[in-house]
Amino acid sequence: MFRRSLLCAALGLAAAAAAHAQSFPAKPIKLLVAFPAGGPTDITMRQLAENASKILGQPIVVENKPGAGGTLPAQALQTAQPDGYTVGQTPLGVFRLPYTTKITWDPVKDISYVINVTGYAFGIVVPADSPFKTWKDFVAYAKANPGKLTYGSTGNLTSPHLTTELVAQKAGIELQHVPYKGSADLMLAVLSGQLMAAADSTGFAPQVEAGKLRVLNTWGEKRLAKFPDAPTLKELGYDIVQSSPFGLGAPKGTPPEVVKKLHDAFKQAMEEPSYVAALGRYDMLPNYMSTADYTKFAQATFTREKALIEKLGLGKPQ
Q: Which of 44, 49, 264, 317 is 20 to 30 Å from the Cα of 258, by its Cα?
């Protein structure tokens, strides 16, 4: 009798889950974005959300949760209902959390990875009136003035921060890092002279094109068409390529059928010309990974980021 009751209960839950998946979505979906409104991530994610909302037939409401190195959406997923109505951006910083902060959840096991959508084009910029005309000038000053050259990034332990520190380590220089919550605040700081340099995604493009900033290097496999005179890190002698792929995750336990609906809608949304054009404004490219591939990527990245954190000596105290 007890076994029969358990079986009936299990069948009832399965039926309820199937009905939920079939009717999903029946109300607006919340999309948590890891960086402030107005920056490259926010602008491109809002376009993606607008496209996907038309496909799903329900509004997708963007909620910005900046700070903590881009990890707040992933943390919010830990307490959200696993029903598909909350999804969050998952930047690479999520996979560094256990190595730098005491947390009670696992970034690989405790998120249902839905789809990877894109990555960033990064670089280091300085004010147009800076004495640093080239990366060689930057390094020479840093060597002559250890710890005095200030640069900003979009937060502690973000890809711009860690990649710059890795480059500095390879170049034999010591820099002073200043974290900001997002690109908008960071650009204001470097344009106003509060910082000597900034490491960021190419949200700095308008300021460069307006003659207010100068690009010293970029971090892709090849030079960016928009900044053909800026060498890549590889050209400068550092074997580093950084594009920091990111996508969307849902709470652990979200029904697979719901994850598939979200995946299919966002994949179609990625293919819309409006999204591709929005990415193009910031030299970003679509970078599709399926649910299965994105989950494998999460596992591999989790392992790789541990090695980087240890190399830079930035892990949490034991």
A: 44
Per-residue confidence in pLDDT tens, the chain, 318 aa: 666 666 655 455 555 555 567 899 999 999 999 999 998 899 999 999 999 999 999 999 999 999 898 999 999 999 999 999 999 999 999 999 999 899 999 999 999 999 999 999 999 999 999 999 999 999 999 999 999 999 999 999 999 999 999 999 999 999 999 999 888 899 999 999 999 999 999 989 999 999 999 999 999 999 999 999 999 999 999 999 999 999 999 999 999 999 999 999 999 999 999 999 999 998 999 999 999 999 999 999 999 999 999 999 988 665
Radius of gyration of the chain (CA): 21
Can you tell me which residue has the tokens 């947390």?
A: 103
The number of angstroms, rounded, from the C-alpha of 292 to the middle of its chain's C-alpha atoms is: 19
Angle at 305 between CA 167 and CA 280, to 5 degrees: 70
Distance of alpha carbon 70 from alpha carbon 90, whole angstroms: 8
Residue/partner pairs of 104-111 with CB below 8 Å, 24 or more apart: 105/78, 107/74, 107/298, 107/302, 108/298, 108/299, 108/302, 109/252, 110/77, 110/78, 110/252, 111/74, 111/77, 111/249, 111/250, 111/251, 111/252, 111/298
The number of residues in the chain equals 318
Record the tokens describing residue 70, joined without a space. 């881009």
